[in-house]
Specification:
The protein is an all-alpha fold. It has one domain: Four Helix Bundle (Hemerythrin (Met), subunit A) (Up-down Bundle). It is built from seven helices and no strands. The longest helix has 29 residues. It is elongated.
Length: about 140
């Protein structure tokens, strides 16, 4: 049985991260590149948002007793296979799983254009994930 309270708390955290990205990201790549504080806030919250999605996937998989995924992308694919996520949302999140490592470890430096694109276009994928998970949770039987 899915832990509704835990998933709701994780989805609220995800919504907060998305809001921070949206409110702190300037309209242009150049403005983001020139504002190091905004760049740090945006990239850090993007990283945590993707990690929140991965955490939610792991909790749903464990709560349902489905076979565990061997990696983060596998978690999104499992949710796709179990019809929690649409194929498009799962594919988008699978692409995003590398972002936390890039941000946390600074692999190849931080590319402000990549961060800006993720902040402007990628947050829709995060919103889609949250909406699809919330819809799936709402359709699950309530434990008596």
């Amino acid at each position: 049985m899915v832990d509704r309270d835990l998933i709701a708390a994780k989805l609220a955290e995800l919504a907060d991260r998305i809001a921070r990205v949206c409110t702190r990201c300037p309209p242009t790549v150049a403005a983001l590149r020139d504002d190091r504080d905004a760049l740090d806030v945006v990239r850090f919250n993007l990283m945590l948002a993707v990690q929140s999605c991965a955490d939610i996937a792991s909790h749903v998989i464990a709560d349902q007793g489905w076979p565990p995924a061997s990696n983060l992308a596998g978690g999104f694919n499992r949710l796709r296979d179990e019809q929690v996520l649409s194929p498009a949302t799962a594919a988008s999140l699978c692409k995003a799983v590398g972002l936390p490592n890039v941000v946390a470890h600074g692999y190849a430096g931080i590319n402000p254009a990549m961060v800006h694109t993720a902040a402007i276009e990628g947050v829709q994928d995060l919103d889609d994930f949250a909406r699809e998970v919330a819809t799936w949770v709402a359709a699950q039987p309530v434990e008596s």
